[in-house]
Amino acid sequence: MRKTILALVIAILLISSFPTIVFAAPLDNSAPVSDFSSQQILVKFKPGTSLPEVAQIHRQLGGQVKETIPGIGVQVVTVPKGQEKEKVKAYSANAKVAYAEPDFAAQALGSPDDPGFVNQWGMITVQATQAWDVTTGSPSINIAILDTGVDLDHPDLADKIVDNKNFSSSNTTDDVYGHGTHVAGIAAAITNNGIGVAGLGYAATIMNVKVLGDTGSGTYSSVASGIIWAADNGADVINLSLGGTSESQTLQDAVNYAWSRGVVVVAAAGNNGKSDLFYPAGYANCIAVAATDANGEKPLWSNYGDWVDVAAPGREIYSTFKDGSYGYKSGTSMAAPHVSGLAALVFTTVSDTNGDGKLNDEVRSRIEATCDDIGVSGIGYGRINAARAVGGVAVLPGTISGQVTDAGDGSPVSGVRVSDGTRSGFTDPAGKYTIDGVPPGDYHVVASKEGYQSSSLTVTVLSGGTAIADFSLDEVIVPGTITGTVTSAKDGSAISGAQVSDGSRTALTDTLGSYTIGNVPPGSYQVVADKEGYQTSSLTVNVLSGATAVANFSLNEIILPGSITGSVTDVKDGSPIVGATVNDGARTALTDASGQYIIGGVPEGSYTVTASAAGYFISSQVVSVVAEQTATANFALPELPALWAQSIDFRVTGKNLCLNVKVVGESGAVTGAQVAVQLTNGIQNWNFTGTTDSSGTASFVVTKAPAGSYMASITAITLADYIWDTTQGVTSASYTLKSGRGKK
User: Fold this and answer.
1) Pairing of strands 642-653, 723-724
2) Distances (CA, A) of 250 to 283, 392, 562
3) CA distances (Å), 188 to each of 27, 140, 522, in order?
4) b/e per residue, 41-72, with b = 16+ CB within 10 A?
5) Which residues pair with residue 729 across a beta bridge?
6) How many helices (H) and strands (E) does the chain have?
7) What are the b/e assignments for 652-664, b being 16+ CB within 10 Å?
8) What is the DSSP code (8-state) at residue 577?
9) Which of 739, 654, 643, 662 is nearest to 701 (CA)?
10) Within a domain: residue 81?
11) Is-contact 717 725, C-beta < 8 A?
12) Beta bridge partners of 346
């Protein structure tokens, strides 16, 4: 049979109802600026250098002291225009000079001079300019844009691209479709260069990893390959403004691999307006990003749910277009690169607080913990705040509060110590507690009191917010024991050396067949007794606090199994049937070249043995198996009657192309057979299934069929108790349909 293999397709997340909408572009600090002041350098002499020596060195090297910076003794020295670097080198070579350096240029950040920044409302909303006052990131932080490619010649992107890699069906890494260019601009366009737009990642660089083809779609395998390559080739952040509704272990493994390599993985939550999981955003090691508009609302098309982590601006976002232009787009595809750009900034402000050798967990935690609560449900932490995330805006401490109750009766427990690891609180008579002054972040909160088992919860404290951690504590209970005997079911004699286990603890029986398992926590246990030469036995017992549960076992000796053997032949001529399947209900064997089979390891008992083979009726019989003996079951199988396609006929009715397949058997026309047909004209494929009528005919229609050459192929004919004989009749037929009429 011919099988059609369907490729699982993943598409970009652009809102189709906004054909003119464009994504926003990120800022970059890699644009050329004046590196140092003209005709001016800074020189500091070593301690002990006399004033005459200083004056002599200046005369020799052609510098004139303009002023001295008080407190540190650094001299501002004027030099001939164009000789700044040369003079720095000359002063540095003098043994009396501690150091010399250019008088580097500095500039106020504030709003960048990119003219399109006035259209980038999203940057203002997430307080990008305040974040840039703290850090503009670093060119050593790489953002991998896994998309339709990036415009390689765009004046606002070209100098930022440090790598190009193609995993798509396209023959170029350039952006033919236009989606990836818009995404890249939001994350890391060249910033403060006097043209175009600003990218939130500012100084971060771009890795152009093309995983979607020139029509805006691609396969999960391409995306997974791109993720692995980016993680292995220096990506710090991976942006995935793409996705699909189908879950994939391959895609999840790729995301987990990147996370394990220290990469922050950011993915768009999808534009279906649903709470259903969307992939790869739905995987735990992705930051799933929903969209918000200029009013702080979630657009109806943005996905949401308890799996969505954060939100970012995503409606009518201004950014780079392919071919060097700019424009607006909408979608969670536009929201995700805001988060990717922010992650690039945060990488330069965090340290490895948990000692795992990576920063991606600290970056993610910082982004999530510093979000603005915009009061929109279905968005976990809120909308990102770049200034808070990099420490540019004061982050208010929050609170952890809740109640502690007894797990047994639900009553409040007072005097319980609840701690976040640094701060503590104690429950009042109502079982309630509060821990104040908690900095934003994730906390492992532990509740403990003597006489109770400690319990822990992980909570996230947002800036100025309150995290709730309620506990239900179990009382500390004294362990009990399990005891009993193991004897032979045959004569009741004691079995020594038997192993008895409750699943966690084990004991061996003594010469009297007795055993004891101590230190068993209260609960229900399946206790198993086992000894070589005996059948394993199990009992379920309940152990109470400080009490002893009894489990006595009577073991049966192991009796060796028997077997079933025989032959399977053709009832018509007695010839052996090779490869027939024989089954006793639990075990299966195949017949050999002489039609013989054997089923071994069959316990004593009565069995219904069934024989089946392709093209034959199934047959069964009942046999009795005795220990260590062989039972015989021979089968003679009648063949199934054959059916086949007698003809494949085409005809034209109006603008419709009709296809009739007639199925017959040895007795003539066959009614009720399922017929599957694939029809193609080289451009389109049609797959039909139908049932034959009383004349043995299954009919199919292509409405408004275009002119051209058609090929019809029968892919299956099925009917219970029949077999399709492809050696008889026809399996395919061709037809040429011309405009207005058909011709065979």
Assistant:
1) parallel
2) 12, 39, 45
3) 5, 13, 59
4) bbbbbeeebeeeebeebbeebebeeeeeeeee
5) none
6) 10, 50
7) beeeebbbebbbb
8) P
9) 654
10) yes
11) no
12) none
pLDDT value, residue 109: 38
Q: Which helix (H) or strand (E) holds 459?
A: strand 455-461
**Mean pLDDT, rounded, for 576-598:** 95
Q: Which residues pair with 443 in a beta bridge?
A: 459
Q: Are residues 530 and 515 in the same domain?
A: yes
- Print burial letters for 187-218: b (CB count within 10 Å at least 16), e (below 16): bbbbbbbeebbbbbbbbbbbbbbbbbbbebbb
Which residue range(s) make up the domain with 506? 480-554
Element housing 23 (H / E): none
- Given a contact cutoff of 8 angstroms between Cβ atoms, the answer to whether 137 and 348 are in contact is yes
Catalytic residues: 147, 179, 333
Rounded Cα distance between 91 and 69, Å, is 18
CA angle centred on 616, ends 612 and 619, rounded to 5°: 45
In whole angstroms, what is the distance from residue 498 CA to residue 516 CA? 12
Taking 80 as the threshold, does the pLDDT of residue 31 lie above it? no
Q: Whole-angstrom Cα distance, residue 449 to residue 455?
A: 10
SS3 of residue 268 by DSSP: strand
Q: Tell which of 473, 506, 532 closes a domain.
A: 473
Q: Which CA distances in Å does 596 have to 69, 592, 615, 703, 718?
A: 103, 5, 18, 54, 29
Please state, as a whole number, how many other Cβ atoms lie within 10 Å of the Cβ of residue 568: 26
Burial label for 32, CB within 10 Å (0-12, 13-18, 19+), is: exposed
> Which of 735, 535, 721 is closest to 647 using CA atoms?
735
Per-residue pLDDT band for 172 (boundaries 50, 70, 90) equals very high
Q: What are the pLDDT digits (tens) for 350-396? A: 999 889 999 999 999 999 999 998 889 899 899 999 999 998 666 67
Per-residue confidence at 567, pLDDT binned at 50, 70, 90?
A: very high
Of 473, 496, 524, which one is at a domain's C-terminal end? 473
3-state secondary structure of 334: helix
Secondary structure of 54-85 as H, E, C letters: HHHHHHHHCCEEEEEECCCCEEEEECCCCCHH
**Residue 389 phi, psi dihedral angles, 5° rounding:** -60, -35
Of 128, 29, 138, whose CA–CA distance to 389 is shortest? Answer: 128
CA atoms of 147 and 329, how far apart (whole Å): 15
d(CA 700, CA 656): 10
Distance, in Å, from the CA atom of 150 to the CA atom of 181, rounded to the nearest integer, reads 4
Of 437, 455, 436, nearest to 445 by C-alpha is 455
Task: Pick the more confident residue, 740 or 215.
Answer: 215
- Residue 105 is predicted with a pLDDT of 54
Same domain, 289 and 424: no
Containing H/E element for 582? strand 581-583
pLDDT of 493-551, one tens digit each?
Answer: 999 999 999 999 999 999 999 999 999 998 999 999 999 989 999 999 999 888 999 99
Confidence of residue 6 (pLDDT cuts 50, 70, 90): very low
- Contact in structure between 331 and 14 (CB atoms under 8 Å): yes
Domains of the chain: total:
6
Counting every residue written for the chain, the total comes to 744
Which pLDDT belongs to residue 111? Answer: 64
**Beta carbons of 49 and 368 less than 8 angstroms apart:** no
CATH label of the domain that carries residue 82: 3.30.70.80
Peptide bond just before 397 cis, omega within 30 deg: no
Q: Does residue 490 share a domain with residue 456?
A: no
The mean pLDDT of 129-152, rounded to a whole number, is 95
- Is the pLDDT assigned to residue 697 strictly greater than 80? yes
385 found inside a domain: no
Which of 437, 440, 446 lies closest to 460 in space, CA to CA? 440
- Residues 703-739: tens digit of each pLDDT: 999 999 999 999 999 999 899 999 999 999 999 998 7
